[in-house]
Amino acid sequence: MRQVKVGVIGCGHIAQEVHIPNYIQNPKSKLEAICDTNQDILNEVAMKHKIKHVFNDYRELLNSGLVEAVSVCVPTSLHSKVVIDAARCGIHVLCEKPLATNMKEADEMLEAVSRSGVKFMVGFNRRFLPNHLKTKEYLEKGKIGRPILARAQMITTGPYGNEIEKSSCPKEAEKRMGSLFDSGSHLADLMIWMLGKPSAVSASISTHEDEVGVDDSAVVSVKFENGTLGSICVAWLDLPDYQAMEDSRKIEIIGTNGKIESDCLGPSLYFYSTNSLISKLRGKIKITPVKFDPKIPHEALSWSYKKEIDDFLTSIIKNREPSVSGEQAKEALRLILAAYESIRSKSVVTFKTR
What we know:
38% of the residues lie in helices and 24% in strands. It is of the alpha/beta class and 354 residues long. The protein folds into 2 domains: 4-118, Rossmann fold, CATH 3.40.50; 131-296 and 333-349, Dihydrodipicolinate Reductase, domain 2 (2-Layer Sandwich). Strand 12 and strand 13 form a beta hairpin. The longest helix is centred in the C-terminal third of the chain and has 20 residues, at 326-345.
């Protein structure tokens, strides 16, 4: 089997928990090198995973001839520079979400990728959750009629989790650019993927932790081109009990003939339709497309990351486009930036028909 020679740029939490182990475990890849400006972290990760080639400067990694693909796991503010340099070196890229900090950066990234002809994927792993895939399928088949209302809500620990020192929270929050940028980008991508492009956006943000200089909660109202009215609600809160918070991690879509509730982090969806005999007899039906252990709540999320990495590698090996393109990721970024513009202008932001 052909193996893609891979490097990982940035060895923070997402690289250590997702990218590095999944590349090591996937038979389609060979992890050749890692890069980080923090020498202590670099040494620790290299020793743990027995990685021979380490770099402090990502440009040295790109020019080393060791890799043909990289995962970009640096802070969002650095995405554009690293992605553009990788593309210019003819190296395929899987870039963590969100795509960039502004549309100018996004356009420059996509132009560089297009010019070089490399594969470019953005890490919206939640599209690979089987319950979200089933939700999209049901919507396309009209199983709940025409969508009328949609709500996407996600409460996560963000930078307030136990794995992050309290003194480091402000810096970590700033690096993530706020809960709307960090968590909201996932929900924006899923909503657009399921419901189509937005036509108007308005938003509000708040900060409940005084020492943090960015938003840690946000509400966005969205009108989609198909007429659906939606909301995106996000917050950073250290409320770790998974079952207690389960109802606050949902995508709910109500249509003219029923409704779907899909778990943001998997693994199930809840379906009701006036056209379904089973629904008429039993009411709301729980569907788990892939059976996961209910005692391991994050098993489905881990599975989605494996699928994401595998899709990226397969796109290179089979010379096809990845499942999450840069153009699609740009639409999610457009929505998030419009939400922040709405906050600044205290008005509804409308999108030009493209």
